[in-house]
Amino acid sequence: AISSRMKTTDELVADLQNGTAQIIVTNRALHIPGAFGFVLGSEKLLLNVPPTHPLFSHKGGLYFKDIAPYSILLYSLIGDWEEVTSEMLPDTHFIVQEDRENFDSLARLSALPSFATDLSIKHYGTQTDAALIPILDEKATMTYHCYIMNKNKEFFRPFREKFD
User: pTM to 2 decimals?
Assistant: First the structure.
């Protein structure tokens, strides 16, 4: 059976080593004794900016410091991006939405910018009139690493080959 849970890195490593998990994915490069790892891919954070917003014209890119003074509409279930946005935008006023449908409606109708990623756009789509502006800071790109115990290496070979 496949299941997905948000856990700390230490909990994920312990689960992998004790056999509770056969495969783990994290946004940190790790050294796990008895396991091998590989890069699954990366995700880039973007700012979804409505045409009436002052940042709309900055289509070449923005830094977190450029975004900091503005209020931002934020979906609550953003995983590891929550840590990044909290660290990089500690004084920014976030208007947090817990329901995805409400968030999407507000993002479409509001004059407030919101975050998107290159991966979320593939799943949820984009607003036709908004600008998707890349965030240029290094922390706006997250690389995902997959780890599997060496004893399971052959079993997961077909999975791994999809990412080579």
Answer: 0.83
